[in-house]
Write a structure and sequence with these properties.
The chain is mainly β. Helices cover 0% and strands 62% of the residues.
């Protein structure tokens, strides 16, 4: 199995910054993409940012220029630096990875989620 442990969420004022971290552990053979999704109350889960094993990134239009995703392949860890936070960034943020266990097919794994609340 693959475990994803997120940290770094919390309460911040609008315009502030937070940094999320997500570490993958377990009997991991390979990891492809790592990313962050978020889900606000009453809304569907949406992609925030994703980064491939080669470092290619993709961002939601709503966070471009404010959020930066990065990863440390040696630590199987992905980060999300969130700057200039807005009220509408309030959501539960979920870490996601496409990973492979030895002898098993590629599969999607999710963290438990971390709350980010932006106040006025």
């Amino acid at each position: 199995q693959v475990q994803l442990v997120e940290s770094g969420g919390g309460l911040v004022q609008a315009g502030g910054s937070l940094r999320l971290s997500c570490a993958a552990s377990g009997s991991i053979f390979m990891i492809n993409s790592m990313g962050w999704y978020r889900q606000a109350p009453g809304k569907q889960r949406e992609l925030v940012a994703v980064i491939t094993s080669g470092g290619r990134t993709n961002y939601a239009d709503s966070v471009k220029g404010r959020f930066t995703i990065a990863r440390d392949n040696a630590k199987n860890t992905v980060y999300l630096q969130m700057n200039s936070l807005k009220l509408e960034d309030t959501a539960v943020y979920y870490c996601n990875t496409e990973a492979k266990l030895r002898g098993y097919p590629w599969d999607d794994y999710w963290g438990q989620g971390t709350q980010v609340t932006v106040s006025s």
